[in-house]
Amino acid sequence: MSYLLKRIAFYLFTAWAAVTINFFVPRLIPGDPVQALITRSRGQMTTDAVQSLYVLFGLDKNTSLLEQYFSYLGQLLRGDLGLSFTFFPTPVSEVIGDGLPWTLGLVGVTTVLGFLLGTGLGTLVGWRRGSWADSLIPITTFLSSIPYFWLGLIAIALLTGPDSFFPASGAYDPGLVPGWDWEFVGSTLRYGLLPAFTILISSMSGWILSMRNMMVTVASEDYVTVAHAKGLPERRVMVGYAARNALLPNVSGFALSLGFIVGGTLLVEIVFSYPGLGLQLFQAVGAKDYPLMQGIFLIITLSVLLANFLADVAYLALDPRTRREG
């Protein structure tokens, strides 16, 4: 229990540090975001209107930096991430809310599915090392080294076209109204198959390779030899003794993968013009939309911290040594 409390305190401190850095970074970037907004909109504004924009975006020069910081913390506690420059006057939280379900649906499902399939196949390949299954290792090594977006470009070049089943970009057919009807859901699945396939192939290959190597290492440990000597069924030895311990290093990697789900696979979303957080972040950087960048960075950071906390909890369940006092 003390271990868990220490980890909670650590993550709370890290979350505060992330929020603080997220506050100062836009203020350290050269340029004036309010003037950039005025220039882009080509609007003629009075001095009072410009001052109102500074106050609205929390950049009032008449208030101290410390006052702005505590005002920012108060906004976060109320769930207020500010207003987007690109989609002004739409709140950042609403913009993120529009893109988050698409990223979770695409990257989230493929990340979890890739981990489960890759870990399962890696367990079998590592347990039966020296068999024909080892011939798959060079293929998985090659696939895991290819960036997601490169696979996406190859998939678009080979599998899309005027008469192809797979669309080259977008998330659903133009003209459809988003809803839970079969036409929209079917269109969403069809548009998501190709980007999901590119992410799944690359991520699954990496999990197969890492799990296979850990299984080979763990299979030579004494406790696995003792389990065999006791006459336990081979499946029980493989899953309960070898795979359970070989899985531990992958838990941390999976936690990081879960944390970065909300950031999306940036280049894949750009390649397929998929309306997730990754594409929104790319658009925000191009438009110098500091509030939107700030909000997406904060969501990604907190998601990584939450995923790592869940990994620590998983360690407590999988490894009894972490439950003991030093």
UniProtKB/TrEMBL annotation:
ABC transmembrane type-1 domain mapped to chain residues: 100-311
Keyword hit for Nucleotidyltransferase: no
Classification via InterPro entries: MetI-like (IPR000515), MetI-like_sf (IPR035906)
Annotated compartments: Cell membrane; Membrane
GO terms of biological process kind: transmembrane transport
Domain of life: Bacteria
Membrane-spanning intervals of the chain: 9-29, 102-127, 139-159, 189-209, 254-275, 295-318
Mitochondrion listed as a keyword: no
Membrane-topology annotation of the record: Multi-pass membrane protein
Keywords associated with the record: Membrane, Transmembrane, Transmembrane helix, Transport
GO CC terms in record: plasma membrane
PANTHER family for the chain: OLIGOPEPTIDE TRANSPORT SYSTEM PERMEASE PROTEIN (PTHR43376)
Similarity comment text for this entry: Belongs to the binding-protein-dependent transport system permease family.
Protein name from the UniProt record: ABC transporter permease
Organism (species): Saccharothrix syringae (Nocardiopsis syringae)
